[in-house]
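Q: what does this look like with L-homoserine bound?
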Amino acid sequence: MVDLGRAVLVRAPATTANLGPGFDALGMALDWYEEAECALSTDGWVVRVSGPGAGAVPRGPDNLAARGARAVLAAAGRPHAALRIALRLSVPVGRGLGSSAAAVAAGVVAADALLGAGLPPEELVRLATEVEGHPDNVAPAILGGLCASCVAAGGARVLSVRLPPPPGLEALAAIPDAVLRTAVARSVLPAAVPFADAVANVQRACLLVAGLAAGRTDVLAEATCDRLHQPYRAPLVPGLLGCLDAVRAAGAPGVFLSGAGPSILALVPAGPSPVRAAVEGILHDHLRAHGGGAVRRLGLAARGAHVVERRAPA
Ligand code: HSE
């Protein structure tokens, strides 16, 4: 039986990670949401999943929303409590748009709200990072905006600094029909990289954050270039490097592989413009030539996971 007196509806945003050079560090929330309706359960864990790709998502306590919730329950001293979760997927799974992080974020925020635990946001990010393995998606999925994150003290601390989403920009995502599992996209990364490549990425990641903080969108095209992961992942995403070059040449302020891919995300001026139209055309051509998919316009989201509805005690 479920205690319906303590039910919450939580919405958690999709995210794009890395933003090119900021591998496992940078991420930004997008205006596209997963929803989870959660309540304390006296019947153990009950997880239902609906929406696109639901068939591939685990039910029960191994579900990512449940794992996020369990981390909070344990941290709040209620390790034996359980939740009933109805997760409604909307962000496609395995496309590099943070569907896993959104599920984890929904779980941690829901459990925190249901228990009235009031854990600080940085603790929610740390717990979510433990579940997800790296902070770049979960930080903006919880805090919203654009986050720079760092795992410290062997995982005992996660430092995240949030910036508001850059004004005047929106995202265009080329989302292939094909799935690319993050584990596969990480397995092709080398154990070591040339020092010059590391330096190039440090320069660009720093320029990206400083440029965004200062409103200097003119530096973003160069600042979103990467030498640490995209070149190694290119064989898994046919047409990637040519598409990035074409989008940059069309005048997009920034373009990169979204997270581990296979989606490509371009930053363009918000609203209709010749640049947006040209970039949309390039992204459509890329998808048509490489197995199909959809191009989607996405706003940049200021808000991370939050409770949108709280049921009053019956
Ligand atoms: N930083 C991660 C990666 C994001 O690129 O592998 C995907 O979860």
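The two ends are 14 Å apart (CA to CA). The mean pLDDT is 95.
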